[in-house]
């Protein structure tokens, strides 16, 4: 119950601030290089549960799907390379 409350509070505080810059990064992660975003989008969408656990645990829980999405975003987007794991996880959730 407490984790759910913490997660909801974090989303309410951080989502609006991050939604603008990285949400578009997450949705167009592969468009510049592969021509097909469906596979890239799928990786990012599948990482949402892992991203939620990462944010709620203050970085303590790192799932494999989140790691794959972070790696993909940083490979495809220059602005994602400069972002922290927490910022990218929050952006995935804001998407």
In a few lines, what is going on in this structure?
The protein has 95 residues and is mainly alpha-helical. 75% of the residues lie in helices and 0% in strands.
What order do the helices and strands come in, and which of them pair?
Layout: H1 2-27, H2 38-46, H3 48-56, H4 64-76, H5 78-81, H6 85-94
Helix pairs in contact: 1-3, 1-6, 2-4, 3-6
Distance between the termini: 24 Å
Q: Kindly state the mean pLDDT as a whole number?
A: 76
Give the helix proportion (percent range).
over 70%
Q: What structural class do helix, strand and pairing data support?
A: mainly alpha
Which blocks of ≥5 consecutive residues have pLDDT under 50?
Answer: 5-21, 27-36
* H-E string: HHHHHH
Pfam families: DUF2388
Keywords: Signal
Signal peptide: 1-19
InterPro entries: CHP02448
Task: Characterise this structure.
With 95 residues, the chain is an all-alpha fold. The longest helix has 26 residues. About 28% of the residues have low confidence. The chain has one domain. 75% of the residues lie in helices and 0% in strands.
Characteristic terms for this protein:
signal; about 100 residues; DUF2388 domain-containing protein; single chain
